[in-house]
Design brief:
Layout (H helix, E strand, L loop, with lengths): L27 E4 L16 E2 L3 E2 L9 E2 L3 E3 L8 H10 L2 E4 L5 H13 L10 E2 L5 H11 L3 E5 L8 E6 L19 E2 L6 E2 L4 H11 L3 E5 L5 E6 H9 L14 E4 L4 H11 L3 E4 L7 H14 L5 E6 L2 H9 L5 E3 L9 H5 L5 H19 L1 E2 L2 E4 L5 H9 L4 E4 L1 H4 L8 E4 L2 E7 L27 E5 L4 H18 L5 H7 L1 E4 L2 H7 L16
Length: about 525
Amino acid sequence: MRGDLNFTFKEDIMAYYYDEPSHTFGEYLLIPGYTSADCIPEHVSLRTPVTRFNKKAGEESDLYMNIPMVSAVMQSVSDDKMAVALAQEGGISFIYGSQTIEAQAAMVARAKSYKAGFVTSDSNIRPDQTLEEVIQLIQKTGHSTIAVTADGTSHGKLEGIITERDFRVDHFPAGSKVRDYMIPFKDMITGQDGISLSDANDLIWKHKVNQLPIIDKNGNLVSLVFRKDFDSAANHPNELHDSKHRYIVGAGINTRDYMQRVPALLDAGVDVLCLDSSEGYSEWQARALHDIHDKFGKNVKVGAGNVVDRDGFMFLAENGADFVKIGIGGGSICITREQKGIGRGQATATIEVAKARDEYYQKTGIYVPICSDGGIVHDYHITLALAMGADFVMLGRYFARFDESPSNKVIINGNYMKEYWGEGSSRARNWQRYDLGGKAGMSFEEGVDSYVPYAGHLHDNVAITISKVVHTMCNCGALTIPELQEKAKITLVSAVTVQESGAHDVTVKNASVSYKS
């Protein structure tokens, strides 16, 4: 460089430096508060809003969850089986979008029709159709019970019921008609439209049937009630339903094909959408939010993200995001930070975005829920995230360990494991999640392919996790998530304190399965 060149130093063009380092959840602990006699686990409510609402005007959100947990938009985590299992516990699964539009919509449709009290029949056939067509319908829908209606529609005049137990495959003449094998209407037990779910289940048990068709005064099919759904409801008191008693189901979308994907998902019955991106502070997300709301209406709920600071939250909130996701690079299979050098400690990001959410509420009266996505290693990190301001958390590794996740269970070195891979891995190749515009395709990996220890059924594990959250809230003197955020006392801890927090200076004989999440 020549020494005679003149340079003018301008302080305002320097990069911005944060005064404090960013922190993870593992660097914090909660300080207990006063626990009153009423502050017991049975009194705690984890109900939490999912989408924006005018809180100052006294409105409520259009969508709540009964537990503050959603599953990540990932191939190895969230399909229709996960959606059903998590909705049974009171949470929401966001079915992964890195598949064809038709395949994702089919997953949503299966989850929406899986259950729930009074179910509109989507497997129907006419009495003059053949058993071959019955078999094709069972294979297509996965439903073993098919309503036989005069016109083959879900609300036609009920003629009978046929199930896979009413005939033997390969043991009937070709072209056999449904009418010759079905249970005819005259031999069926039915309920009248308007019957309560409790009374419907009483009829099911009294007459020892597996399903009860509900008909109107003209004999037209209205819905079906299944014995298995009553059993499920008894074991899952927090089940999350829509107004038609169907499970609440979410889906992930990208910023490329959303104008084709969104209508297909809406037709399938999806309740809430989420723009899935590793970095959401972008023009592409703003365009997608406006396009979706302008084309399909404000009632279509779309979350956006991910962001890690005030500016990112404000940008998405002002562009209509129904909730905002927080987190870059904190996921166990994510390598965005080491590949690109962007991100922030999850705890610090959650704290700053929560402050921005409250600032936005004070200014507009609109409350935009926030979701902490990533960085959850232990169950108590969920409680910390909620105390720091999150309305709910998104989990990938946590749910990937369970039977209900779509990945394979394998044996590695004598131990059962589940496969778990990131959307930015060469296996998933979900380039749309990392899209910055321009040429379509994946430039480099931002995720890894891995294994996680197999942990059994989702129901059992979520029950333990929720129990830990609830008991910790009682230790803090809080009965609701907003009360926890108001009363929580949180302290940074030293590395030695972290070490002291677990079992130490002993040899643990039989570590409990619930010792770590």
